Amino acid sequence: MSETVRIGLVLPDVMGTYGDSGNALVLRQRLLMRGIAAEVVSVTLSDPVPESLDLYVLGGAEDSAQRLATKHLARYPGLQNAASRGAPVLAICAAIQVLGNWYETSSGERVDGVSMLDVTTAPQPTRSIGEVVSTPSLAGLTQKLTGFENHRGGTTLGPSATGFARVASGVGNGVGDGQEGVVQGSVIGTYMHGPALARNPELADYLLEKAMGVTLEPLVLEDVEQLRRERL
Ligand code: GLN
Questions:
Q1: Is 89 in contact with 83 (CB distance < 8 Å)?
Q2: Closest to 193 (Cα-Cα) out of 74, 64, 67, 96
Q3: Residue whose CA is closest, atom 5 of ligand 1?
Q4: Which of 70, 90, 104, 152 best tests ligand 1's pocket when mutated (most atoms within 8 Å of CB)?
């Protein structure tokens, strides 16, 4: 890794609808506050996807935008290559669907994903909108997770994928198995907007520590803790 931690913000031009680009800013800010150099590298539909970055974040999107993203990621497999060497990837909402095996849009069209996650997604009878609180299943996380969900798709985990967290309130993956999100290798997917990392600093530091291979000094910010208390 170079001295500057390089955070890939993947396709914010199409996967930026729900403010999830804020996750990249949170990662950068938590490093800068510790005196560690960091930069956000924005990768748009005009760019091939680089495989050399330290970690990657992808945000949610509408069905039509997520189709454009799927095409781009299939054409330039930098994200797939980075994940294969263990670079952390955080995929929010539509990004879970795009990184999965296939997803069906609200209009019933089935689109092949890029198969980084062994999941499939199909529209549910009603849209899930509201706060979601969950208990992490991923080793290394101890704090309850909170976010805002807004999705029609329901995601089913295949045998190579495991749940990221168990739903305490809200909907999560939405197929009745009580799971919120998905973990497979170095890829974490979640339905939490927020942005998720602003509301869940333990998850932000988890991703940074995995990317850097170090243990970071604790960084407790009172306004973030206040927000957490309000949402739990
Ligand atoms: N279009 C997808 C769905 O409705 C994802 C929405 C999102 O990213 N919030 O399921």
A1: yes
A2: 96
A3: 94
A4: 152
* Nearby residues of 222 by Cβ (< 8 Å), 6 or more positions away: none
User: What's the token pair of residue 201?
Assistant: 């600093």
Per residue in 32-64, pLDDT (tens digit) is 999 999 999 999 999 999 999 999 999 999 999
Neighbouring CB atoms inside 10 A of 155's CB total 28
Distance CA 200, CA 165 (A): 13
Q: Best substitution site from 20, 67, 68, 97 to test ligand 1's pocket, by max atoms within 8 Å of Cβ? A: 97
Q: Is 230 exposed, middle or buried (0-12, 13-18, 19+ CB in 10 A)?
A: exposed
Tokens of 221: 């910010």
How far apart CA 130 and CA 149 sit, in angstroms, is: 5
**Which residues participate in catalysis according to the annotation?**
93, 193
Q: Is 116 in contact with 103 (CB distance < 8 Å)?
A: no
How crowded is the C-beta side of 45, counted as CA atoms within 13 Å?
Answer: 11
Q: Which residues contact 40 (CB under 8 A, 6 or more apart)?
A: 7, 9, 24, 25, 27, 28
Termini Cα distance of the chain? 36
Cis preceding-peptide flag for 12 (omega within 30 of 0): no
Q: Rounded to two decimals, what is the model's pTM?
A: 0.97
Question: Ligand 1 pocket: which residues have CB below 6 Å?
Answer: 18, 60-63, 66, 93-94, 150-153
pLDDT for res 2? 62
